[in-house]
Amino acid sequence: MMIILSQLFLGLINGCFYAVLSLGLAIIFGMLNIVNFAHGALYMLGAFFGWICLTQLGTWTGVEGLSLNYWWALLVVPIVVGALGMVFERVFLRRLRQVDPVYGMLLTFGFALVLEGLFRNYFGVSGQPYALPAQFRGAVDVGFMFVPKYRLWVVVASLVVCAAVWYFIERTRLGSYLRAGTENAAIAQALGINVPLLVSLTYGVGVALAALTGVLAAPILQVSSGMGSELNIIIFAVVVVGGMGSIGGAILTGLGLGLLEAVVTIIYPEAAAIVIFVIMSVVLLFKPAGLFGKEA
Fold it and tell me: What is d(CA 37, CA 93) in angstroms, rounded to the nearest whole number?
């Protein structure tokens, strides 16, 4: 039982990463109808920016000894990547809003390839070292295992972020403006809502969540140029199973997938890497809109 509980906790950590990443992807698709294939690359960008802020900022700026602490990196990196995402949406994606969505998908896919190629050319393919923050070193005895403090922090932070974003979109006035502006732009504009700004903010929030996940994951995983492409297909599968555009579905499916992978790893480890795709196939056969999605 202790082994099972330990494995489930490790699965919960992966599930938290899946949940926050798929949440950002679901926001972008559900509100903007953009299949954002650059999501994995922006997650990688967040991890690299976090690594640069903590270890390489002095070298890059020419100011010896300059660096940001972990908390500043956790705040600054999502804002910077979110701002870059808003510029990308305004300059490129906005020109494709009136054409077939496949063009936006191809543009974001090409953007992801460019980002990954640039970082692979500059940093190589090997992972970069990223030390744990000093305040999160060590472990906590939770009865059935010693849990590293940082992994416990990742679970708590991810669940808080998911709950806060869901509440913001579904229960606040600004969230209702976001939903109104993306569901019927003409009427929202007539009522005085700045729809173009809301669209840019929506895309910025989605990619900021990807960058935040990158900063959280960097001390646990190797920071490399290929880390985003490895997760991209899994995150899309999570969003499809949960329901394209369903905020709650993305969160619950992401968490559930992490736990399911842990169970399958105990029973039949070889199937852990494909279980999400088996589930996706079954769900699409019987409920094409996803578990929590709405029929078109």
Answer: 13
